[in-house]
Design a protein that fits this description.
This is VOC family protein. It is built from 5 helices and 16 strands. The protein is α+β, with helices and mostly antiparallel strands.
């Protein structure tokens, strides 16, 4: 796949990464759960590895400095053609830029930001590294969703910064908006009201494809993680919400269909 063919439309989720205390033990967990192998780099990010599935990059894991105690969470990165301009747009629309923009060697340029509700996300201006290079098979991120209190105000932020078109679910008791780019659904906003976990606040959730949700959830427990919401049927497949041994929360999904997934579906 050439760089030109792989380049994501700005606003498209293009990468997920996790910064942890124990890099080696975290690699062992995700390697056993998703069959990832790991490759070091880029060095500019400190101790950092990329998880590979069948030789293709799918996610990144880095190590926190010993004196840093930040929430351990998967971070969704949204593609941009100009990280500096996007960072300025984030600030002008009420968001915060906490890190960067900064260069990650020859790989690209990044920033870590939060929306007006406090949900953290990244932006990625790809150079040599465009982002996740395979999707739809078990072990790959297939969907990203902002879990927040209510969607109307924060939707305006994402629309203005990234140019999304939104499509709301018309329901009195279900606050859900899908984010579209070029008529393709790429992510979603899910308002859960008082059901939002108090210890987490608004956050982006990463969904990983699995071959068998129940088996994968059981495997998480065997490997030292926890099941937060047991396997259940959703509109796009069978899903379970779990946490790794350091507490990073993510969702497992066996997408509806014949084992493959349409990443434009919303769970």
């Amino acid at each position: 796949m050439t760089e030109a063919a792989a380049r994501r439309t700005p606003g498209t989720p293009c990468w997920v990464s996790l910064i942890v205390h124990g890099l080696t033990t975290t690699q062992e967990f995700y390697g056993a759960l998703f069959d990832w192998e790991f490759r070091p780099g880029p060095e500019q990010l400190g101790p950092y590895v990329r998880g590979l599935l069948h030789g293709k990059e799918v996610a990144g894991i880095g190590q926190l400095p010993p004196d840093r105690h930040l929430p351990i969470a998967w971070t969704t990165y949204l593609a941009t053609d100009d990280a500096d301009a996007t960072a300025e747009a984030i600030r002008s629309c009420g968001g915060t830029v906490a890190v960067g923009p900064l260069d990650a060697g020859e790989a690209g340029r990044l920033a870590i930001a939060s929306d007006p509700s406090g949900a953290v996300f990244g932006i990625w201006q790809g150079s040599e590294h465009i982002g996740t290079m395979t999707a739809g098979v078990p072990g790959t991120p297939v969907w990203n969703e902002l879990v927040t209190r209510e969607t109307s105000m924060v939707a305006k932020f994402y629309q203005t910064v990234f140019g999304y078109e939104t499509e709301a679910v018309l329901s009195a008791d279900f606050d859900y908006q899908t984010l579209h780019l070029d008529d393709v659904a790429v992510a979603a906003l899910h308002g859960v009201g008082h059901a939002l976990p108090r210890d987490r606040g608004p956050h982006w959730m990463t969904y990983f494809e699995v071959a068998d949700t129940d088996r994968a959830a059981a495997r998480v427990v065997e490997l030292g993680g926890r099941v937060l919401q047991p396997p259940r049927e959703g509109s796009s497949g069978r899903l379970a919400t779990v946490a790794d041994p350091e507490g990073a929360v993510f969702t497992l999904i066996r997408s509806a269909g014949s084992g493959s997934t349409d990443s434009t579906d919303s769970p």
